[in-house]
């Protein structure tokens, strides 16, 4: 129950408190309306304000100043609004205590909460903001000079608020950046993607920043290169047979790469004789360290406008070659063009359950062709990506003809090898061979 105390509203104290509350509500409405007006100005409104500022209009100049320092303006508005609202709450509670009696403390608390909240929302927020949004430019130019004076008064506190907010923002940014690649990889693993290609692309994006050039380069033994002393006919035949658009040029060995020859430069001289001085067409080569991150290399390719780099070790010896296509394939998967070897050319089926594979065939491609789960090779392949690499990881020595490896019902046998290089590997599936 609520009971009004007789003659309480006629006391000077209550009248003064009521007047203070009304004034503070007007202040709260003015501050809220100014915030809405300032931060809802459209680009066309700001253009009009700038025109008025050229005429030395004080309100327009104040608007441009407040909008140009929006962080400090917003800090001032928030401080003033909170202080005014707290004062309104305290004074309203005092008035209610002196003019009304309640049956219980809970009833008094409920009434004060509802009544004061209604006053603040209606007269301190809703009505002023609705009005300010309809007359944004006029309201802003009217209130800006007053708000600018208040900002100067509260400037020390505003500085503390803005700098504290900046520190919190930096800490939150740091927290977001500290999310590890392992956590992202786990998130991808537990996410239900539409297909394997989508999952592979997401994994490629996550691992992109941490992948080194060494893991994606074309190895030295597979580089197609030309010595600077060969004739122009050899140059033309090499471009035609390899299908590459860029070929490294070296002096005495691949450790002395002196440039790169582009097919588009050769194309305009196809009618020249064998003694043509083609070295004048060679462009400078771009060199990169083996442990460089491919994200950094991609940025180098972009800024220097090159598409290929020679990978060297700490002693300057050539280890391999990396191209823009190699980097992109880390994210989107294998990119095939007309010069790539077709998948069918990397193996030959000689009988049921028996295949002869090129030793450089990717383990995943081989598993798909012989119809087995690639995961069965996980315990033996280590970091290897090719069939030959997997056998090298397991044997821990150079492979020789006749070397074998048995994984489940799959048997791998080296059928063709040179001193330090494996060319062909026979793969047999016991399940298929014994079934026939």
How would you describe this structure to a colleague?
There is one protein chain. With 436 residues, the chain is an alpha+beta fold. It folds into four domains: 2-174, no CATH class; 179-210, no CATH class; 213-332, CBS-domain (Roll), CATH 3.10.580.10; 343-434, Uridine Diphospho-n-acetylenolpyruvylglucosamine Reductase, domain 3 (2-Layer Sandwich), CATH 3.30.465.10. 54% of the residues lie in helices and 15% in strands. It contains 17 helices and 14 strands. A hairpin with a 2-residue loop joins β10 and β11. α1 runs antiparallel to α4 and α1 crosses α6 (136-153). Mean pLDDT is 82; it is low at 338-343.
Largest sheet at a glance?
5 strands, antiparallel
- Radius of gyration based on Cα positions: 39 Å
Percentage of residues in helical conformation = 40-55%
* Shape descriptor: elongated
Which segments are poorly predicted (pLDDT under 50) over 5 or more consecutive residues?
338-343
Relative strand content = 5-15%
Q: Which strand order do you get reading across the main beta sheet?
A: 10-11-14-13-12
SS element count, helices:
17
Structural classification: alpha+beta
Tally of strands: 14
């Amino acid at each position: 129950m609520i009971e009004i105390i007789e003659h309480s509203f006629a006391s000077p104290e209550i009248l003064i408190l009521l007047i203070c509350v009304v004034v503070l509500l007007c202040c709260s409405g003015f501050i809220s309306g100014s915030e809405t007006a300032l931060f809802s100005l459209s680009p066309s409104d700001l253009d009009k304000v700038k025109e008025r500022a050229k005429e030395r209009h004080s309100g327009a100049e104040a608007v441009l100043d407040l909008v140009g320092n929006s962080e400090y303006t917003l800090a001032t508005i928030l401080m003033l609004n909170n202080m005014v609202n707290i004062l309104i709450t305290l004074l309203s509670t005092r008035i209610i205590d002196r003019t009304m009696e309640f049956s219980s403390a809970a009833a008094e608390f409920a009434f004060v909460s509802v009544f004061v909240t209604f006053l603040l929302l209606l007269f301190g927020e809703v009505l002023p903001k609705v009005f300010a949004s309809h007359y944004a430019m006029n309201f802003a130019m009217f209130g800006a000079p007053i708000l600018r004076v208040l900002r100067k008064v509260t400037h020390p506190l505003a500085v503390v608020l803005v700098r504290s907010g900046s520190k919190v923002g930096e800490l939150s940014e740091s927290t977001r950046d500290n999310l590890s690649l392992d956590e992202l990889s786990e998130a991808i693993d537990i996410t239900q993607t539409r297909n394997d290609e989508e999952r592979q692309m997401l994994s490629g994006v996550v691992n992109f920043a941490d992948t080194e050039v060494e893991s994606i380069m074309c190895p030295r033994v597979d580089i197609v290169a030309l010595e600077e002393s060969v004739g122009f006919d050899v140059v033309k035949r090499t471009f035609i047979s390899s299908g590459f658009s860029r070929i490294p040029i070296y002096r005495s060995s691949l450790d002395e790469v002196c440039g790169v020859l582009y097919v588009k430069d050769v194309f305009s001289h196809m009618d020249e004789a064998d003694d043509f001085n083609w070295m004048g067409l060679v462009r400078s080569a771009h060199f990169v360290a083996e442990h460089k991150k491919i994200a950094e290399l991609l940025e180098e390719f972009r800024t220097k406008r090159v598409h290929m780099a020679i990978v060297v070790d700490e002693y300057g010896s050539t280890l391999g070659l990396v191209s823009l296509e190699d980097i992109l394939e880390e994210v989107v998967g294998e990119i095939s063009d007309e010069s790539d070897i077709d998948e069918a050319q990397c193996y030959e089926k000689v009988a049921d359950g028996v295949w002869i594979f090129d030793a450089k065939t990717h383990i995943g491609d081989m598993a798909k062709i012989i119809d087995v789960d690639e995961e069965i090779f996980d315990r033996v392949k280590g970091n290897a990506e090719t069939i030959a690499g997997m056998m090298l990881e397991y044997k821990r020595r150079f492979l020789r003809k006749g070397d074998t490896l048995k994984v489940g019902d799959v048997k791998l046998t080296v059928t063709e090898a040179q001193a330090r290089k494996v060319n062909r590997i026979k793969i047999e599936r016991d399940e298929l061979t014994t079934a026939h």
